[in-house]
Specification:
The protein is of the alpha/beta class. About 45% of the residues lie in helices and about 15% in strands. The chain is globular. The chain binds flavin mononucleotide (FMN).
C-alpha cells in the first residue's frame, strides 16, 4: 500500500505500530523498497504498547528519510531524528500542540480536523478553522488532514493556506488497501453522518462507524466503564478482526466523515490522478493557479 502510494506520486507511509518489533519493521521497509524506488515514510504512533525505541532505531538503520510521529509528545526522540538528518513531521489536533512541535524542531506538522478518521482530538475543531489558524500561527509547513477525499478537498485545503494534505479513509477504500472487503463496503455505504466519537472518556477520542456496537461502547463510557471493560471491542485484537477479517460486529471501524463522498474502489493511482486533476480544475476555475 505504501509503495503504491509513493509510486502514484504521493508519500506512502508504513505504520510502525502494525509490527511487533524493530526487526519486523525493518523487514517491511525492505519489502517496500522491492516495490518502489520512490521515497516513503514511516509513521510512529507514540503511546501505544509497542517498542518505540526499536522502531526509531530500525528507521535510522534503514536510512528512512521521513518520520511522522503522532499520539504523544515526541521530544525524547528528536535528537536521534536531528542527528540522522531525518525529516520529522508531527501530527497534532490543536494549534497549541503545533506550536510545541515547532519548538521541538519539527520540520512540518499535520493538523487533523475533528471530521477525520483515527484520533482527531478532543477539541472538536473543524479543519476549516484549524488550517488558517495553524498557518497564521506557525512558521513551519502545515499539512491538512480530515475528511479530504477528492480534488475539491485538496483545493480547499490549499486555498486555506495548507501546504499539502494527508488522507486516511479514502485510501482505505482502494484496490491496493489491505483492509477487508467488508470494511471497504461499509465505508462506501456510510454517509457523512454515519460516524460517532468514542473513547472521549479515555481522553483519546476516536471517530468510528456508527453501529449498534460502537453506540453500546459510547453508552458504557457514559456510564463510566473503564478501558479494560471495553478492551475486547476497542482494543488491538478487535481492530485486527475488523480490519483483516471484516468482522464488523466484533469491534469498531475507524473512519472519517468523508465516507459520505466515497463511492467506489479505485486503484491508488486513480485516486491520486483524480485528486490532482480535479484540484487543478477547481483552482483554475476560481483563478487560484
Ligand atoms: C483506519 C485508520 C487507521 C489510522 N491509523 C493511524 C495511525 O496508526 N497513526 C496515525 O498517526 N494516524 C492514523 N490514522 C489517521 C490518519 O493518518 C489521518 O490523519 C486521518 O485518517 C485523516 O482523516 P480521514 O480519514 O478523514 O482522511 C488512521 C486513520 C484511519 C482511518
Amino acid at each position: 500500500m505504501a509503495a503504491a502510494v509513493s509510486e502514484a506520486g504521493g508519500l506512502g507511509l508504513i505504520t510502525a505500530g502494525t509490527y511487533k518489533d524493530g526487526a519486523a519493521l525493518k523487514a517491511e521497509i525492505a519489502a517496500t523498497r522491492q516495490l518502489t524506488q520512490k521515497p516513503f515514510g514511516v509513521n510512529i504512533t507514540l503511546g501505544t504498547r509497542r517498542p518505540m525505541d526499536e522502531f526509531f532505531a530500525a528507521c535510522v538503520e534503514e536510512k528512512i528519510k521521513i518520520i511522522i510521529t503522532s499520539g504523544r509528545n515526541p521530544e525524547k526522540f528528536v535528537p536521534m531524528l536531528k542527528d540522522n538528518g531525518i525529516i520529522f513531521v508531527h501530527v497534532v489536533t490543536a494549534v497549541r500542540h503545533g506550536l510545541k512541535a515547532q519548538e521541538l524542531g519539527a520540520d512540518a506538522v499535520v493538523v487533523v480536523g475533528c471530521e477525520g478518521g483515527g484520533h482527531p482530538g478532543m477539541d472538536d475543531v473543524s479543519l476549516t478553522s484549524l488550517i488558517p489558524k495553524a498557518v497564521d500561527t506557525l512558521k513551519i509547513p502545515v499539512i491538512a488532514a480530515g475528511s479530504i477525499t477528492d480534488g475539491r478537498g485538496l483545493a480547499s485545503a490549499l486555498c486555506l493556506g495548507a501546504h499539502g494534505v494527508q488522507m486516511g479513509t479514502r485510501f482505505l477504500v482502494t484496490k491496493e488497501s489491505p483492509a477487508h472487503e467488508n470494511v471497504k463496503s461499509a465505508i462506501i455505504q456510510a454517509n457523512e453522518n454515519d460516524t460517532i466519537m468514542i473513547e472521549r472518556s479515555f481522553r483519546n477520542a476516536r471517530r468510528v462507524l456508527k453501529t449498534p456496537l460502537s453506540q453500546w461502547v459510547l453508552a458504557k463510557e457514559i456510564e463510566g466503564a473503564s478501558f479494560e471493560e471495553l478492551k475486547e471491542v476497542i482494543g488491538g485484537e478487535a481492530y485486527i478482526q475488523v480490519m483483516a477479517q471484516g468482522l464488523l460486529d466484533k469491534g469498531v471501524l475507524t473512519m472519517g466523515q468523508g465516507s459520505g463522498n466515497i463511492h467506489d474502489i479505485p486503484t491508488v493511482q486513480e485516486v491520486i490522478d483524480r485528486i490532482v486533476s480535479q484540484a487543478n480544475v477547481v483552482l483554475a476555475a476560481n483563478n487560484c493557479l
